[in-house]
Input
Amino acid sequence: MKRLGVVAILILAFLGLADSLYLVQHAASGTPLLCNIQDFSGCNIVAASQYARIFGIPLAEFGVVFYGVLFILAALELVLVNRLLRRLLQAMALIGILASLYFIFLQLFVIDAVCIYCVVSALITLFILIFASFIEPLKKRIKPAIPPPQNHSQLSMPPNL
Output
């Protein structure tokens, strides 16, 4: 199951990378996004908003870096089976979901438009976090201060009692 979780993260990171690359291509070319899906037709409004860039860099480029790093970490973890790599995957997934929640909040309550590509990215990040949580729990296992009692059937009372 642990290996399957890492493979799932690898696949999801690839999908997130494809999603982000499409948005980067849109930002570079200025072509309108294809997003006429019921209530998710606000992609171009979101992409044109002041929140679509940080320090002049399109958010999608940060997405490419984010998903690219996750993909590399998952690929390395499959080969090396390293605890540090698992922790980095978990930390990246946690940071990613916090960022996704913030951006979804902006879409719903500030921009008043929803981008399907952003929602897909947030869902991908959520599933990455879920799979990363199953690879290995984030909290350390605490050793008991007092060792558990051993087999009591072998204990005997001292002869003087």
Remarks:
- The domain at 2-139 is CATH 1.20.1440.130 (de novo design (two linked rop proteins)).
